[in-house]
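seq:
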Amino acid sequence: MKRLTCIMMLGALPTLAAVEFDAIYGDGMVLQRGREVVVRGTTDKPSEPVTVSFNGQKVKAETRGRRWQAVLEPMKANAEGQALTAEQKSGSATVQNVVVGEVWIASGQSNMLWRLNQTPGNAQTIARSANENFRFFHSEPQVHTAPPRYNAEQLKRVQEKRMYEGKWAVSAPATTPRMTAVGYYFGQALQRELGVPVGVIHASLGGSNMLAWIPRDVVRKEYPGCQGANWVKSKYASEWVRGRAQQNVGPGGDFALHPYAPSYLYETGLEKWEGFPVAGVIWYQGESDAEILDNEQNKKLLKDIITSWRDKLGNPEMPFIQVQLPRINDKSKLRAYWPEFRQVQAEVAEELPGVECVVTLDLGSTNSDVHPPRKVEVGERLAATALKEVYGKDVAASGPVITGFRTKGSKVQVSFNNAEGLKTTDGAAPVGFELAGSDKDFAPATAEIKGKFVELQADGVKSPKYLRYGWAVFMTPNLVNEAGLPTAPCAATDGKAPKKKGRNKRR
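struct:
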């Protein structure tokens, strides 16, 4: 009798699944429409064929060791949740309620990480957040950089690269509170206008620098002086980033395993998505790198993020929409170079196809808080830009953009794109314009709207050669178009402003 009991107990023990999906595949996920979709996982039975089934397709996977991978043919959008199955003779694995639509990545530092339940009016927004056709994969940071010194458990997590935990979830009051607010407003607006399922994959970290988001192979090639712990002493680490890392790790710590270390956040937050098709990226970052006044360096870092992510995600034309730094009422050295960094962001958008820059000059803090509360407008402006520039929708997505200027004596006539209904929000004269002669000694300019143009004149500037608009850490811009969208900051010379290259729209 004792032997029989023992046998029965053994028979009740669970068996290990022979086949499993990788962690990025989960109940409620969204697959990208119109692209081949990679499905991958592991198996304890590599000798047994793996067959993947979804949406009427049945595909035999390729197996290498314990790893398997299958590729589904491009699919149309489908809001009907279906099962994604991987089968072997000895067992199977199933992901439920999978839909097909548009998938975007949301990443950056704390203003992208900023949660929905941290935003004003969040209670009502969360209460009505149920939307079966909006889903997200929220990567929750398990270690932040705010505490002065990591404890043993935090250090262990960092060392083991267990930085994030996350899974797919359908938008609902129970799931949205900790989601990125910007990503939420972006995704909901996109889903509402496109009428197809939308998924947002989120991975951000407060205070993070650009170098931490660049893949390891690119860092080795392009930033050879930033190997190991040396990065913390390099020119790429701002004083604030360096100081925070030293606080977190402590004297004699291993800075190579700090979240701000080169490639660390890419490897822990985004590497697992390599090869997974997405529609594009929304990016809100720059506050940490803007402390460094090196425009060429910052431009290279930003370009390397964009081009490397495009490479790793298998889409050389992947749309990349960045949030331009807003205003902030902070006179400290930490924010002194924000105008220059805004210009870097704009120039990258001008120079790389498929890259956009969303103006938020009017949405920043009126105090020194680096976290402005108006996340709704940021998310919706990102969505409008995606709808227009990626999906070819006829929507208002941009405020006036300076295209050039003409001089006649001491007067300057400024021309714009997107200047229909040019006006000021307060009925006063436009503010924020400056003129300079060959000496580059800028002086505030008086401005007057003349149809689709603005006429400028500055005391003491008899022969204007240079023009700037919005070139201040903090200002209250008032020049908008009929859509109420603000004029983009700009620096122009010899009557010329940067020209935007052509874009590839995806309809």
